[in-house]
Amino acid sequence: MTASSDLGTSWRATGIIRRMFPLLVVLSVIVLIAGIRLEQAGALLQRYGVIAVMVPTMVGTGGNLGAVLSSRLSTRFHLGLTVTDPSDRGLWSNVIAVSLLGMTIFAGLAGAGYILDGLTGGQVGGQSLLIITVLSGAVIIIAAISFSFLATYLAFRYRIDPDDVTIPVVTNLVDVLGMITFLTVAAFVLG
Amino acid sequence: MSVREEVWDIYRETLPVMLIALMGGLIAGVLLEEVVGLIERLPGLLVMIPVFLATRGNVYAALGARIASGLHQGLISPRFRRDPRLIQAVIASFVNAMAVAVVIAIISWVSLQVLGRPSASLLKLVSIMVLASGFAASVLIVGLLSIIFVGYRRGVDPDNLVGPVVTTLGDIFGMLFIVVAIGVVEWVGI
Prior knowledge:
The complex is a heterodimer. Chain A has helices spanning 7-10, 13-40, 42-47, 49-78, 89-119, 126-157, 162-190. Chain A is mostly helical. In chain A, helix 4 (49-78) runs antiparallel to helix 5. By secondary structure, chain B is mostly helical. In chain B, 83% of the residues lie in helices and 0% in strands. The interface between A and B is large, with 71 and 75 residues.
């Protein structure tokens, strides 16, 4: 299938809105779970300010990794390259690069958290921060990669333009999972 | 190209924006810590925040990915022009962002009622979401397109830019404009 055959209609605002809006509403309902989890963690966040400061990066990095990977997979799809052949080296390069990027960023986040925690009196402590970051980071990286492939594959299978579907689905599922993982691990370690 | 070279290329090209995203996330985190301090005055506020930030991501990442694919395919040029494809894509993202903002406030309010948790009035939640979305739209659309266009003209693959740029701008300005919107709503006395 070639993506160029339906470009006339795929760039029209009404068409984009009609395809995207229902998806946005469904995704909002999914991410509402993350919101409810955050609201429940209000007391934890008020007590440990560093955990609150880490929330957007913890959640956002998973979304970023998913977005980078699925955006690349989606362009491969538009250019007519494979997205599901495991013997394709280009796919493995993408997966390895995204994993390394994730590890780098989570290491940086742990470092920044450690400094901030030190500045605010060391309530959480370096060891707890390291455990929380490594555990949450590993889950989030694996989730970002898995969801990127799954979503691109499903978009390909059902012939939906992956740009409209893949990235929102991936980032939102990883957001929810990242929020639940991070706050649950943090509550457990600091409990 | 070997796997090692390709991995290194992707890593090297993406790392700077990921590091900027890390800085942005930390700034947004500091703003979030401020908002956590307001939850007694505006109960239920925290429920909306992840949904609001995720929606900014959804709408503008889709816009960015569409522009990136358009650039790769040579359908649009990397400049602010009266290009019908560009205009249609921007209008669609704005309409989606504003409409879903109202939906977020409603589903958050309903879920708080269902769970029996304290909540600010529906009007207050809707006002905060609509104001924050409107402010965020102007900054995010102009900022995202500028960065993609400039990056593309300098030979950076837009695919590596879209996700981190959207998350960074979305997190910082999303949180910032929530704080601003709260200020406006409390000042007007809604």
